[in-house]
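User: I'm preparing a small set of examples for a lab meeting where we compare how different chains pack in three dimensions. I only have the primary sequence for this one, and I'd like the structure in token form so I can line it up with the others. Please keep the answer compact; I'll paste it straight into my notes.
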Amino acid sequence: MNETHDPQQRSWVQSANAPGTDFPIQNLPFGVFRRADGSESFRGGVAIGDQILDLAAALNRGALDGTVAQAAGAAAAAPTLNEFMAAGPQAWSALRLALSRALRQGSAQQQGLQDCLVPALQAEHAVPARIGDFTDFYSSIHHATAAGRLMRPDRPLLPNYKWVPIGYHGRSSSITVSGQQFPRPTGQALAGGVAHPTVRPSKRLDYELELGVFIGPGNALGSRIPIDEAESHVFGLCLLNDWSARDLQVWESQPLGPFLAKSFATTLSPWIVTLEALEPYRLPWTRPAGDPQPLPYLDSLGLRRIGAIDIELEVAIETAAMRRAGAAPSRLSRSNFSYCYWSIAQMVAHHTINGCNLQSGDLLGTGTQSGPQPPEAGCLLELTRGGKQLLTLSNGETRSFLEDGDAVIMRGWCERADAARIGFGQVVGRVLPAIP
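Assistant: Understood. Below is the structure token output for the 436-residue chain.
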């Protein structure tokens, strides 16, 4: 905790002081943007209220104090954030402090920086880093149990789950930023009571409510990241929707796991919230006394003290009919990242225990974040009990899985009385008809 977390701080960007804003001066998340007319190159920016601070323009104005902050600002102003991510926690913190001081009420930098702001509504975004590799974990025991119960009612949770953070290597080329529209995926599926599979568009298209974890400094091939050092290798978090074709998935996943059912689209929110900004929302990480306690490389006093984070997560749907009528989206569920069985540090430490080398800009998905109660489920597979129980939406429509024209909207935020509210913005994606 430091002066950037002070809940009394206010910004000369007035929209950053509005109640309920996702991007107050205590947040300052990083992303990549340009004006929506397409006349400019993508470059690094920072969200502040309803504005984006253009980091390249701010550097040109000499607005960043300190050698470290200037070097970090130059890296963060690039078309991707990989170099900035690789610079490590000292550089991230120095730039964030310099930005906080420059954007506060009474700052001598106000006049010089006002022309460096771009209204967020006039901007478009790109994926904030060059993602070399994407690994998706299965870190919510509530999701693992609920999904497992649909396939194995007598043994929903497999024996290894409470011992090892389960994950699989996904596809990075189909990761895109919020606003993505994609055709319904086609692949092999086996219908009930039929002897042979057919090739057809998915009939059981689903979303997954997740967080994305961006890696900062990597580790050398053949080395390990100890758990107490793991978070120094994490730049920050974003929202992640790992779209899933459940009917393709159940057929093709035997025995090696997801393939075409997951590789057609993954959507990220544009802004990466740093771990430093999330410090006020730390919680102790716990494991139920009756469960196996983590093996030594996955456990530490630091993890137990502050290894969890209190992040509210929400998912809503906007159908084509709602869009035509101008109706508000219908909320589907709400959960919290603090329910997570495996922490961020444990995912990183386990990923490297075999000597695997993580690289700056790599992305980890947390897996579907579900809570212990049915309304806290993070996907339609759980909410509809595998499609057997229809959901009734706010306008009277029903869903078992997603239909063409449906848009899924995910939001995340941290909020409590003695700290500034920190938001993640939102991630939105829309399903189009399958390619003929």
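A couple of notes for your slides: Residues 3-126 form a domain with the SH3 type barrels. fold (CATH 2.30.30.230). The CA atoms of residues 187 and 199 lie 5 Å apart.

User: Perfect, thanks.
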